[in-house]
Specification:
By secondary structure, the protein is mainly beta. It has a single domain, classed as L,D-transpeptidase catalytic domain-like (Beta Barrel), CATH 2.40.440. It is 12% helix and 37% strand. The strands form 2 sheets. Strands 1-4-3-2-11-5 form a 6-stranded mixed sheet, with helices on both faces. Strands 7-6-8-9-10 form a 5-stranded mixed sheet. A hairpin with a 2-residue loop joins strand 8 and strand 9. The radius of gyration is 17 Å and the shape is elongated.
């Protein structure tokens, strides 16, 4: 099977590992999605993080399951017990840990936004004045607005923690969520169902 031949390439590839933005990274309109791209040889993706990914699950049947390995900074997708997808990820930092345990997908939201984290922008210049704002303590000043962080293809599995498209700097960097390259977040989203088991180790 092509997957078995190509998986070692993905495992050896350099990984670029969202619950929070990264300072100095991003575009004026979508700072949280910096580094995301579309379209490598065996995945059909061009972004470096996506080219370290693998997906071969579109035609595979059976119940789905997700395994998140924080040490490897990878997520694994299974169908009917068969590994069909591997993706680099960025999990929570030492102060915002992605908790280990056994969970299940409880919500799917294709256009989710963080209720707590985002950026504060100047309305006149559209310039970001706080790129790691917490709505519970950081308030916009006069002529400023709080923009909640977009978390596309969100799969909630542990209260406020979920998987979603976001920036991968190559190490744990989120506020607890599991960031993925955009195309892999989309695949996991499309193939997971409410109730899909999620193991965080």
């Amino acid at each position: 099977m092509i997957f078995r031949l190509l998986l070692p390439l993905g495992l050896l590839a350099t990984l670029l590992s969202s619950c929070s933005p990264m300072a100095g990274i991003g575009t004026p309109n979508r700072p949280y999605l910096a580094g995301l791209g579309v379209s490598s040889a065996h995945t059909g993706f061009s972004n470096p993080a996506e080219s370290a990914s693998f997906w071969d699950g579109d035609s595979v049947g059976g119940p789905s399951a997700i395994r998140i390995n924080r040490d490897d900074q990878r997520a694994y997708f299974y169908k009917g017990g068969e590994l069909v997808g591997v993706s680099p990820i960025s999990t929570g930092t030492a102060t915002h840990v992605t908790p280990p345990g056994q969970f299940r997908v409880t919500e799917k939201d294709i256009d989710h936004e963080s209720s707590a984290y985002g950026v504060i922008k100047d309305l006149a210049t559209d310039r970001v004045v706080n790129d790691d704002a917490d709505a519970r303590k950081d308030k916009p000043g006069p002529g400023q607005v709080f923009v909640h962080a977009p978390m596309p293809h969100f799969l909630r599995f542990n209260y406020g923690v979920g998987m979603h498209a976001g920036f991968l700097p190559g190490f744990p960097a989120s506020h607890g969520c599991v960031r993925m390259p955009e195309q892999m977040a989309k695949k996991f989203y499309e193939h997971a169902t409410i109730g899909t088991p999620v193991t965080v180790e």
